[in-house]
Write a structure and sequence with these properties.
The chain is mainly alpha-helical. The chain has five helices and no strands. Helix 1 crosses helix 2 and helix 3 packs antiparallel against helix 4. The chain starts with a helix and ends with a helix. It comes from Desmophyllum pertusum.
Length: 229
């Protein structure tokens, strides 16, 4: 029903109520009054239904907007989730590899720590020469360097003797003195180098023997070691 029809029904209903009030005592007006009253009630019910339908449509429209917004958000969240799952799938092999490498490194650190502890025990029991340490070798290298530095002015002095005056006897004496000093310095330098090399060989042999002893010790069953204790 159109808006104008609804207004007409309301007008008729109001008129019926008015006529019924004025002529309620006459029997002729009762059928007309009842009809108009029924029309008025139906008009009011129809108007209420139309209003309810309009409100329902408005609520439905708002719900539809919210539903579309929720669907958009759900779609965005799904894309984000798919991206995260793809990253997890790509990184899982590398993560597993890193975990295996970490376990391997931990195991090796534990083994090396045990071996280091055993070697320290052997070192405390086996007397080692002090020359095995790095500090001693550094000290010897410094001594060689100092000797070489001392040799430089001697070489310079010896070269200067080539310009001596024609006094052959005196020149020969000075040259021989310079040669003796130079030879002495060279001999000292060679001795230090030879001593350092010899000491390195001795230390290497001692370390090799120590490692062989350590391997032999590890090959002995633990039960025999406990029994020996």
């Amino acid at each position: 029903m159109s808006q104008s029809g609804r207004m007409s029904l309301k007008t008729l209903a109001s008129l019926a109520l008015l006529l019924g009030t004025k002529n309620g005592s006459t029997s002729r007006s009762l059928p007309v009054f009842s009809l108009l009253l029924g029309i008025a009630e139906q008009s009011q019910a129809l108007s209420a239904a139309i209003d309810a339908n309009t409100e329902e449509k408005r609520l439905l429209s708002r719900l539809l907007v919210k539903t579309k917004k929720a669907q958009t958000n759900a779609s965005n969240l799904q894309r984000c989730l798919d991206g995260v799952l793809d990253q997890v799938a790509l990184q899982t092999p590398q993560m597993n590899k890193n975990a295996q490498e970490t376990d391997f490194v931990k195991l090796k650190c534990k083994e090396y720590g045990k071996i280091n502890k055993e070697l320290k025990g052997y070192q405390s029991k086996v007397p080692l020469d002090s020359s095995i340490y790095h500090g001693y070798l550094v000290k010897k290298a410094e001594e060689v360097r100092i000797i070489k530095e001392k040799m430089k002015p001697i070489k310079t002095k010896l070269e200067g003797y080539h310009t001596l005056p024609p006094d052959i006897s005196q020149a020969r004496v000075k040259v021989e003195e310079a040669k003796m000093q130079l030879n002495l310095s060279r001999t000292q330098s060679k001795m230090l180098v030879t001593l350092a090399n010899t000491q390195l060989i001795i230390n290497g042999c001692m370390l090799y023997q120590l490692e062989k002893t350590s391997e032999s010790y590890r090959m002995i069953p633990r039960g025999l070691l406990d029994t020996g204790k």
